[in-house]
Automatic annotation (TrEMBL):
SMART domains: S_TKc
Coiled coil region boundaries: none
Superkingdom as given in the UniProt entry: Eukaryota
Source organism (scientific name): Rotaria socialis
Annotated keywords: ATP-binding, Kinase, Nucleotide-binding, Serine/threonine-protein kinase, Transferase
Protein name (record): Protein kinase domain-containing protein
GO cellular component term of the entry, any: cAMP-dependent protein kinase complex
């Protein structure tokens, strides 16, 4: 779960020197990231897209409020915001996406509708290499749909189980990505409360 608490301040640079965050992110990078996030969060984009525009490829998993499916966009022309999903593929319509389908009634019954909407807005506003990319969202009478980057490497737990233990080099590789992603979120005033090796 992602929780955003707008806050003032943050790393700042004094004249003649460049300050950094505790993890070493230069203050100018922080400032740029914060401005970009605030702009996207305060003015969420709208998308002219619908469930019928996709072909279902396969189920990817289930959650408390719904499911996640691999889908492919089947309309022509493809919207600009989907052209980013597969930049090396000249067949633009082959773009594959993880479509998160959240049932509105289930979220309402569990009193999580506000959290679901807030998480969608946060994902839309984030921009960091080690955080899954948001592409679009839309809704109908029954569900909220969120289109996300399709990651096919599997869960970290599966790799850990197969290896039994990670070599130090591999452990540092995974840990560094997690730490940098968490630092980016914390600098933006966001708390991620669901960190685990599953998922």
């Amino acid at each position: 779960l992602l929780t955003y608490a707008p806050m003032g301040g943050g790393p700042s640079s004094s004249s003649g020197s460049t300050s950094t965050s505790p993890g070493g992110i230069p203050s100018e990078c922080y400032k740029q990231a914060r401005e970009e996030f605030d702009s996207r969060y305060s003015t969420p984009a709208t998308f002219q897209i619908a469930y019928r525009d996709f072909q279902i490829i396969r189920p990817l998993g289930r959650g408390a409020f719904g499911s996640v499916k691999e889908v492919k966009y089947i309309r022509d022309p493809i919207p600009d915001y989907l052209q980013r999903t597969n930049p090396t593929d000249s067949t633009i319509t082959s773009a594959r996406i993880a479509l998160k389908i959240i049932n509105k009634k289930s979220a309402y019954k569990m009193k999580q509708e506000e959290h679901v909407v807030n998480e969608k807005r946060i994902l839309q506003a984030l921009n960091f290499p080690f955080i899954i990319r948001f592409y679009f969202s839309f809704k109908d009478n029954a569900n909220l749909y969120i289109g996300l980057e399709l990651i096919e490497g599997g869960e970290l737990f599966r790799h850990l189980r197969d290896s039994e233990r990670f070599e130090e080099k591999k452990a540092k590789f995974y840990a560094s990505q997690i730490v940098l992603a968490l630092e980016y979120l914390h600098l933006l005033g966001i708390v991620y409360r669901d960190l685990k090796v599953f998922g």
